[in-house]
Design goal:
The chain is α/β, with parallel strands linked by helices. It has a single domain (about 1-20, about 40-215), classed as Rossmann fold (3-Layer(aba) Sandwich), CATH 3.40.50. It has 7 helices and 7 strands, in the order ααβαβαββαβααββ. It has helices spanning about 5-15, 25-35, 50-55, 70-80, 115-125, 145-165, 185-195; strands at about 40-45, 60-65, 85-90, 100-105, 125-135, 200-205, 210-215. A 7-stranded mixed β-sheet has the order 3-2-1-4-5-7-6, sandwiched between helices. The longest helix is centred in the C-terminal third of the chain and has 21 residues, at about 145-165.
Length: about 220
Amino acid sequence: MTPRPRALAALDRFNAAHPWDHNAHYHRWILRQVPKRCARALDIGCGSGELAGLLATRAQTVIGIDADPTIVALARATAPAEGRMSFVTGDALTAVPRGPYDIVTCVAAVHHMPFGRALNLFRHHLAPGGTLVVVGVARADTVGDHLMGALSIPLNAAVGWLRNRGRPAPRPAAMTARTRPPVMTFAEIGDQVGAALPGARLRRRLFWRYTLVWHAP
């Protein structure tokens, strides 16, 4: 094995021993984008409910929806008993409880859906003046994409080390439903966002993510 493959293999072993949740990394950033007080929030692709729990500090009612029944069961089991949070198993395009919502979030899930249809649905669920926040995954295509990916590799290891304080850690709770890699490039995403959500803020981010913020008129 040449030095470069050996180095990459060593990095893979290190990351496996010091895992952390790339999506949860953006949860606090999401909170900074949304109102401090509101009535209703919707988290699409809620997973095990961590972001829904944070949104419950801002919204009177939070609904999470996910297609994976196993992860939804975990979210329900770990939710506080006070009843401000509820979770639904179902297709985000067809099974979302009736809105509107002051906050709609979607983290690392929109690439599992028909993108243009999902954006229109998110917009439909928002109350006037509501906030949509998406953290998504795009297919690397340009030199800039690959440079951001390369920069994320050592930073990924550093964050894993710091979060776990240098000690090996169990892996975060994972989805059991089938996942798929992103097929759309950042440029393709930008074209559809511009058409569906005029004025949206779309940014490339570290750790193989992009962010989208849009405020309904």
